[in-house]
Amino acid sequence: MRKFTTLTGVAAPLPMINIDTDKIIPKQYLKTIQRSGLGKGLFDEMRYNADGSEIPGFVLNQPAYRQAKILVAGENFGCGSSREHAPWALLDFGITCIIASDFADIFYNNCFKNGILPIRVSQHDLDKLFDDAERGANATLTIDLASQQIRGPDGGTVKFEIDPFRKHCLMNGLDDIGLTMEKKASIDSYEAKAKTARAWA
Q1: Per-residue pLDDT tens digits for 149-183
Q2: Could you say which of 1, 4, 45, 46 has the lowest number of CB atoms within 10 Å?
Q3: Helix segments in 94-183, DSSP class H
């Protein structure tokens, strides 16, 4: 998993509440267990018409937001089913940070396990960030995980809270496998002792 320390990029506004995981990545894309290639299906029903043509009004189809790295979203983002394909699709598109007033718990946890930083802020701060995100190509935010700050295009800052363990994992690029491998020396030592003690095993 890539380390997350700081991120500067265009923030796309998606002021809708209760965006569920089926909206993020519809069921027809769940046939694969590959993490790459899912970006094309991100928000499929909102991005494309039935004939596959783009819906011009959708935010990620607008020229200013096609390379967005940050999503500013409404309350209860990621609700619905627990599909891990949702953070995979966001990550494959290029979005590595989502800011909202609240997230569904399973989606929130899945983000951390896949290198995406989900940030909870107050509705007051979210409204300010929506204003920043609506500036099109000038909607650039900087996320500084070490200082736990979001810096806006005019220099204003928003502080956010994060669990210290999750912060450590993101900053060091540690998913569940990475956390296990941090204990490799202890695991190897145990296996060596077990091999001697139970040579028949």
Answers
A1: 999 999 999 999 999 999 999 999 997 777 666 67
A2: 45
A3: 105-113, 123-133, 164-172, 176-181
